[in-house]
Amino acid sequence: NKSLDAAEFATTLKNSLQVWKTNGNRGIWINIPTQYSDIVPFCADLGFEFQYAKKGLLVMTHWLPEDSHSRLPHGPTHQVGIGAVILHPVTGKMLVVQEKSGPAAARKLWKTPTGLTDPGEDVVEAAIREAKEETGLDVEFDRIICMRQAHGGIFNQSDMFFVCLLHLKPKYKEGLDRGEEVPLHAQEEEIADIAWMDMEEYANQSLWVGSPVYEELNNAMLRVAKTVFGEAQSQGEASTDEIENDSEPKSAREKCNKSETDDSHCGFIAKTLPVGFRPGSNTIYLSRL
User: Is pTM beyond 0.85 here?
Assistant: First the structure.
């Protein structure tokens, strides 16, 4: 919170640049908090370019060698989004929403609950969070069905979109067994309507039909959903047989984990593991296709 004289800073920076050039330094970074934004024009006059900005911070960079192109990395180039595929455990219908605003709302499009990851948030966490925020449901992550990459989005960023299969928590199936319906609570700020829809009806919405990208994406969702739902329906019988044979019942995900099936619908599973050589963990997404 110390005050900073912008003109004095500019003089110091200009002298420092000469020293850094003499010393053979190449890439210079300046992190500028909002309260020091009055130094930005001085930095620009000395050759610094905008590299990255977020709330409370601007990053400017300067590549000093004049005989080579800058090798400094670009700022963030991608945003990461998720779509949540949630199936009704009895009917097999898919949970869909209509938004209150935006391009999808203008087309009255039914879509899966979607959203962007927060900073430092894994795809798994984002899918579970977005499902809870938009529908009020508690869910568990199963797998990534497919990914779509697109370019030229907002601020000319690229977009990575992960279609995730989620399962309702067991409490909802228990409620259905008691004759209760799955309670749906549309997010007041964003969601206009929420419903269960046949997946074929979803895939045949006019916007999707004739779009090679979305026809492929929706077909992938249909294949996986039908396989998983079919296995879930037969799980009771399979569980009984396996218990009689003193073996544990195995879900489709467990079979994918152990490569016990040649089914082409396994998708990507997520494993969060320690890095090992430093604190922390990463999530790795494994294809079992």
Answer: no
